[in-house]
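Here is the promised in-class demo. Please do not try to memorize the tokens; focus on the logic of going from shape to residues.
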């Protein structure tokens, strides 16, 4: 179990008002800016920053370690000192204890994380002092600080003779080895979470989610928003089971694009005549030579009207033309660029559709054009879902059948939901 700790990031816990020479801004602690020399930026050469009293809630607490994260360039330093007390002292009382501060460590060149043990005596309260030093041209930049407590080492697992008497040295020595071992065991304990796409790390420092995407054959998902990456990788097993099917293509494109999609197979556009099961003009359409426009004297013989087809039998033309073609409809939202969305959809379809299929991408917007986009539910959107409303809100699209009605109707007040006639305000049925 991880021991509790204080995390001091983005200002909470820092006493900034009396921190000479130090700036705390944009989540970083750095040396304050000094007047520039010529065109070169200058910084203060030294500055101190002290935290408020951190309360462990444990009388006689043995504080464990301090962890810093940031960058310390070559030639700069950060000195870490701690002050532990059993009483919550005032600022004036702390000023009188200048010789009680204990050095925990001196940070030289750093790019990442650094830690050191707290060597001071036990106490319920701890104050942390960071002294930043630079050469005027460069400055340390600390992004985060953690103070862990209480100290728990593997000394408790050894026979009691090892912890008898003055065991402070052995306790500190085992704390070092325990930290090294914990760096491995913590990673092993976190592996189940890292293998879960809904919990894997996706930060700039450690992007385990992108590695997991490459492991399941989706190595280019890092260009997507993190939430969409998680949904797509989590659905990978089901997508592979449905790969190449209309539902699989539609779902894969929907997860990737973050938009609603639908697939229409072109063979469904023709209603084939079936013996004793179809009526001409209603449930069936007889196909003719215009399916592929074969060269035929008297019908398709003019240049530009016919096609040279190598398949000998015209009876197979409808199947060769329609059986392997489909259209992917992508329903755009407000603010979408149709060309960009269509280009992304074409890349997805090319990757997940069967090799023998011919795909067409259609981006559907909230419009309908007779003869062009007029199939409601596929390539035409007459109106989207109405905005959410509450009881008492005006109904802007209400139809008032009573000529005496004036103004708009209100849900739950003077509107009868479920009927076509809504009584206007100030009238009675």
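The designed amino acids, position by position:
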């Amino acid at each position: 179990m991880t021991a509790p700790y204080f995390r001091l990031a983005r200002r909470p816990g820092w006493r900034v008002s009396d921190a000479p020479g130090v700036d705390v801004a944009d989540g970083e602690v750095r040396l304050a800016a000094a007047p520039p020399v010529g065109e070169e930026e200058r910084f203060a050469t030294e500055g101190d920053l002290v935290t408020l009293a951190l309360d462990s809630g444990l009388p006689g607490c043995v504080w464990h370690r301090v962890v810093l994260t940031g960058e310390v360039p070559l030639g700069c330093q950060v000195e870490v000192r701690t002050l532990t007390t059993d009483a919550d002292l005032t600022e004036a009382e702390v000023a009188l204890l200048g010789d009680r501060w204990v050095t925990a460590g001196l940070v030289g060149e750093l790019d990442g994380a650094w830690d050191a043990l707290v060597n001071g005596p036990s106490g319920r309260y701890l104050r942390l002092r960071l002294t930043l030093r630079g050469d005027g041209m460069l400055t340390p930049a600390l992004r985060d600080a953690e103070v862990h407590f209480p100290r728990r080492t593997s000394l408790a697992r050894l026979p009691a003779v090892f912890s008898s008497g003055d065991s402070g040295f052995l306790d500190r020595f085992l704390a070092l080895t325990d930290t090294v071992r914990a760096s491995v065991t913590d990673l092993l304990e976190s592996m189940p979470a890292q293998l879960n796409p809904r919990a894997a790390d996706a930060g700039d420092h450690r992007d385990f989610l992108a590695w997991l995407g490459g492991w399941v054959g989706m190595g280019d998902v890092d260009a997507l928003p993190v939430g969409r990456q998680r949904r797509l990788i989590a659905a990978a097993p089901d997508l592979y089971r449905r790969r190449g099917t209309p539902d699989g293509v539609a779902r894969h494109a929907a997860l990737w694009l973050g938009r609603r999609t639908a697939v229409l197979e072109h063979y469904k556009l023709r209603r084939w005549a079936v013996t004793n099961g179809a009526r001409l003009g209603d449930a069936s359409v007889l196909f003719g030579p215009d399916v592929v426009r074969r060269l035929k004297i008297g019908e398709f013989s003019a240049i530009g009207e016919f096609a040279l087809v190598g398949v000998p039998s015209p009876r197979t033309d409808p199947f060769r033309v329609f059986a392997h073609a489909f259209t992917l409809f992508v329903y755009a939202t407000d603010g979408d660029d149709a060309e960009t969305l269509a280009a992304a959809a074409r890349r997805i379809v090319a990757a997940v559709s069967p090799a023998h299929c011919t795909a067409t991408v259609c981006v559907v917007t909230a419009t309908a054009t007779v003869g062009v986009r007029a199939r409601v539910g596929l390539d035409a959107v007459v109106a989207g879902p109405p905005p959410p409303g509450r009881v008492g809100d005006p109904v802007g699209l209400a139809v008032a059948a009573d000529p005496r009605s004036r103004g708009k109707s209100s849900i739950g007040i003077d509107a009868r939901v479920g009927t076509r006639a809504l009584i206007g305000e100030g009238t009675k049925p």
